[in-house]
């Protein structure tokens, strides 16, 4: 078997000069009767043009060429404008930088032929290196600090190399080699190796650039002195550029630390000057330390979200927090639209351990959803603190005060590092008012949560505006409001079928009172035959509404009653 494989390999390495008998060739036909060796043995790494794999590769390339010919014209748009702009900017310099140096040297006079002037024009290609580094600085896959360091290093090496070459050029073209900087240092330098001469030139260029100047090498003739003067002037600008960039990189890395130390010092001075308690001082410093930590680790998510459009912010908030908010007891059974709107208005915050999130009797401006960590709810009685319960992931903080328009009942204090979602009361109420049906569900969820209300102690007192005897789910009732119209040829009524509000607050907003002018305590106490007055609008000041049951969930008015 091995012999057969080796034999097959040898056959593949041997080809015929004539190729296949079915193929055509442009080669000259041999004379009649001429003989030659028809078989050639190929060396290693030589590809036969008649090899099957090579023919398959050529076929694949043909397909790629066809695709490129079909796609490329559609990729180039505004070709005339692009060509005109390029011709007016970099075209001339790009053409000059590609001129063959051999042809240029032959065209130049003999005196300057050896200088290779046109070779210097090829340095124009270095602008592509600058474009490469500029692109890498904006690429998030590469670290900006190290890309910038690499750029500064390349600039320094290039400047030193060019200056060293010019120094050697001045010495090599001077009529008296012994009166040159390298001639004084090395004697017959032209017989030294190229590497020794290059290292010596780079050494003097570097010592001049760094302004060290050991004195072992110095300019001798006038040409070298003049060039050295201009080179040192160039070094002033290059050194300023390097030092400025390095300082900017270092300050950028340490600026946040310096700002953090200044903030801590200012907070400590403020606490000592105002003689704040030790507990408040610790909370201040802990909060500042946590803020510095989140900024250093890239966790300042709220600042990042504020830079994005609202649609993207809503999508990110929905992805991060929707599953958590959906499990909160207060929002069980509400619509997905309400949850999406609530999540979009929530803002994530971090709190260090032993920090107060909500204070007792504080105005109910916000309530929180606990994402991670643990929080103690503390009740104040007779000047003492008592832990009512511990809130964990998915619990709400301060929702009773927000929903009942009462000061906060507890002090919420973190036990460890916590992440919370803060929702403003005004934003919450605006969203709930736009979703009236979900508002009733939220109130029912609050009433049904016996664990929180029983542990609150005085929490049920704040719910006095909501009757405990109210049914958990009020039936849907529609009423027709009739408003008397006076003037013209007589009087009449304008009737409108409306949905009876499901809460006292909404009922008072439409201005419905009893016949004797008293406010209605609760919607649930309205009975058949009750006379209601619609007070609101110029035409409804004297309107009387008398309800009578017509079907199970439909209420109509008795249009014959007026006041």
Question: What is the topological layout?
Answer:
Layout: H1 2-12, E1 14-16, E2 39-41, H2 52-75, H3 79-87, H4 91-96, H5 101-107, H6 110-113, H7 117-121, H8 126-138, H9 144-172, H10 181-186, H11 194-209, H12 222-273, H13 278-296, H14 301-306, H15 310-325, H16 336-345, E3 347-351, E4 356-358, E5 366-372, E6 375-381, E7 384-391, E8 396-397, H17 399-404, E9 411-414, E10 418-424, H18 425-434, H19 436-448, H20 450-456, E11 478-485, E12 492-499, H21 504-509, E13 512-514, E14 531-534, E15 543-549, E16 555-557
Antiparallel strand pairs: 1-2, 3-10, 4-9, 5-8, 5-10, 6-7, 6-9, 11-12, 13-14, 14-15, 15-16
Helix pairs in contact: 8-9, 9-11, 9-12, 12-13, 15-16, 16-18
Organism: Spirodela intermedia (Intermediate duckweed)
Function: Potassium channel.
GO molecular function: voltage-gated potassium channel activity
Task: Tell me about this structure.
It is a single chain. By secondary structure, this protein is an alpha+beta fold. The protein folds into 4 domains: 1-17 and 38-72, no CATH class; 101-246, Orthogonal Bundle (Helix Hairpins); 301-463, Jelly Rolls (Sandwich), CATH 2.60.120.10; 478-557, no CATH class. It is 49% helix and 15% strand. The protein has helices spanning 2-12, 52-75, 79-87, 91-96, 101-107, 110-113, 117-121, 126-138, 144-172, 181-186, 194-209, 222-273, 278-296, 301-306, 310-325, 336-345, 399-404, 425-434, 436-448, 450-456, 504-509, and strands spanning 14-16, 39-41, 347-351, 356-358, 366-372, 375-381, 384-391, 396-397, 411-414, 418-424, 478-485, 492-499, 512-514, 531-534, 543-549, 555-557. The chain is elongated, with a radius of gyration of 44 Å. The chain starts with a helix and ends in a 6-residue tail after the last strand.
């Amino acid at each position: 078997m091995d012999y057969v494989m080796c034999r097959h390999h040898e056959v593949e390495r041997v080809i015929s000069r004539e190729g296949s008998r079915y193929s055509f060739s442009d080669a000259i036909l041999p004379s009649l009767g001429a003989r030659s060796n028809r078989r050639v043995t190929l060396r290693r790494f030589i590809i036969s043009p008649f090899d099957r794999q090579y023919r398959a590769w050529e076929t694949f390339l043909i397909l790629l060429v066809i695709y490129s010919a079909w796609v490329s014209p559609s990729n180039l748009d505004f070709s005339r404008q692009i060509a005109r702009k390029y011709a007016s900017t970099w075209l001339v310099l790009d053409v000059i930088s590609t001129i063959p140096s051999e042809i240029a040297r032959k065209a130049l006079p003999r005196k300057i032929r050896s200088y290779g002037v046109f070779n210097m024009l090829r340095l124009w290609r270095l602008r592509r290196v600058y474009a490469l580094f500029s692109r890498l600085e904006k690429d998030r896959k590469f670290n900006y600090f190290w890309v910038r360091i690499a750029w500064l290093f390349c600039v320094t090496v290039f400047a030193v190399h060019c200056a060293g070459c010019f120094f050697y050029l001045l010495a090599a073209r001077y009529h008296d080699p012994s009166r040159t900087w390298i001639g004084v240092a090395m004697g017959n330098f032209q017989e030294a190796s190229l590497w020794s001469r290059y290292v010596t030139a780079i050494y003097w260029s570097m010592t001049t650039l760094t302004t060290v100047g050991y004195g072992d090498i110095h300019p001798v003739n006038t040409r070298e002195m003049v060039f050295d003067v201009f080179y040192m002037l160039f070094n002033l600008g290059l050194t300023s550029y390097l030092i400025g960039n390095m300082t900017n990189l270092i300050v950028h890395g340490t600026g946040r630390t310096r700002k953090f130390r200044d903030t801590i010092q200012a907070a400590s001075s403020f606490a000592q000057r105002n003689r704040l308690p030790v507990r408040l001082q610790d909370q201040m410093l802990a909060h500042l330390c946590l803020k510095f930590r989140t900024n250093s680790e890239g966790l300042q998510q709220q600042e990042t979200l504020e830079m994005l459009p609202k649609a993207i912010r809503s999508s990110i908030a929905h992805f991060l927090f929707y599953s958590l908010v959906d499990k909160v007891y207060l929002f069980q059974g509400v619509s997905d639209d309400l949850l999406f709107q609530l999540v979009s208005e929530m803002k994530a915050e971090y709190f260090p351990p032993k920090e107060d999130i909500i204070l007792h009797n504080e105005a109910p401006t916000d309530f929180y959803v606990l994402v991670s960590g643990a929080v103690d709810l503390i009740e104040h009685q007779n000047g003492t603190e008592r832990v009512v319960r511990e809130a964990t992931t998915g619990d709400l903080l301060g929702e009773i005060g927000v929903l009942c328009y009462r000061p906060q009942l507890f002090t919420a204090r973190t036990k460890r590092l916590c992440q919370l979602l803060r929702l403003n009361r005004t934003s919450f109420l605006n969203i709930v008012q736009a979703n009236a049906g979900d508002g009733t569900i939220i109130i029912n969820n609050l009433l049904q949560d016996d664990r929180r209300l029983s542990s609150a102690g005085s929490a049920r007192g704040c719910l006095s505006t909501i009757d405990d005897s109210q049914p958990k789910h009020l039936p849907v009732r529609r009423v027709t409001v009739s408003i008397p119209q006076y003037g013209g040829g007589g009087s009449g009524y304008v009737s409108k079928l409306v949905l009876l509000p499901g809460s006292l607050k909404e009922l008072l907003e439409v201005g419905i009172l009893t016949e004797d002018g008293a406010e209605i305590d609760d919607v649930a106490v309205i009975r058949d035959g009750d006379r209601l007055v619609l007070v609101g609008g110029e035409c409804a000041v004297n309107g009387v509404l008398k309800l009578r049951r017509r079907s199970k969930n439909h209420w109509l008015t008795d249009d014959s009653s007026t006041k």
